[in-house]
Structures are given as structure tokens and as C-alpha cells.
Amino acid sequence: MFETLNRMRQYGGKMFPLKLMFTLPTSMGILFHPEISDTFEGNFKEQSGLNSNWLPVNPLNVPDPRPGSCHNDSRTLPDLTLNFKKTHSLMDETVPAFFGSPILTRVSTM
Predict the structure, then answer these.
(1) Per UniProt, what is one Pfam family of this protein (predicted)?
(2) DSSP string, 32-69
(3) Which residues pair with 6 in a beta bridge?
(4) Which of 12, 28, 58, 92 could, after both became Cys, cross-link 43 (CB 3.0–4.6 A)?
């Protein structure tokens, strides 16, 4: 189960959109939307073979329009973009947590 909560919060005299993200029952982290956007504008990851390392995709190999970008009608997206997104679901960078780590981690309920 994946849950999110969105709120505006003030930090350092500025208002930021705040996103609380957690997967039950594992962990919860506090993330700011700018960091989420930066991550999704970064490099995708790919694996050339089943036993290969996951490596960043060369930006020249990312189709246009870029997967994840705003588009008026997803039904008009080229097959190249749709297939790329189906086979490249991981991003190279992680979204940094506001406090540097999850604020709550639960390993087991037993």
C-alpha cells in the first residue's frame, strides 16, 4: 500500500509544498516537491541484460516528448515514448528525504 499526503509548510521563512510518502508497513519520509521534480527531470536507469548493473540512460536516447513531462493528451503520445516509459521505470537519482532519512521505519509487525 502506498500513501501520500500533501500540505504547504513553512520552513526558513518560505512556504514549500510538502509531500509525505510512505509504504505500509515499511517507512515514511518527508519530501519537498522541488526535489521530486528535480529527480524526475534527471536521468532514467536501464539494464542492458538480466545480470547487468543498472546504469543511467544517455540523455540522447530519451525520446521526445520526454516521459513524465506534461502533455495535453496522453492518447497522442508516440509509441516510442510509451514503450520507453514501460521499459525504463527507474530514475537514476533518488528523491532526498528532508531529514536525510526516513522519519519512521518499521521492519516487522510480528
Answers:
(1) Sema
(2) EHHHHHHHHTS-BEEESSTTSPEEEPPGGGS-SSPTTS
(3) 19
(4) 92
What is the rounded end-to-end Cα distance, in angstroms, of the chain?
18
Q: How many residues does the chain have?
A: 110
For 74, which DSSP code?
Answer: G
The grid cell for 109 is: 509487525
Q: Is the pTM of this model over 0.70?
A: no
- Over residues 10-62, the pLDDT tens digits come to 667 766 666 655 555 555 455 556 777 788 889 999 998 989 999 999 999 99
Q: How far apart are CA 54 and CA 51, in angstroms?
A: 9
Task: Provide the residue ranges of all domains of the chain, joining segments of one domain with +.
Answer: 1-37+96-109, 43-92
CA distance 9 to 98: 12
Q: Kindly indicate the confidence band of residue 3, based on its pLDDT and cuts at 50, 70 and 90.
A: very low
The β-bridge partners of 3 are 22
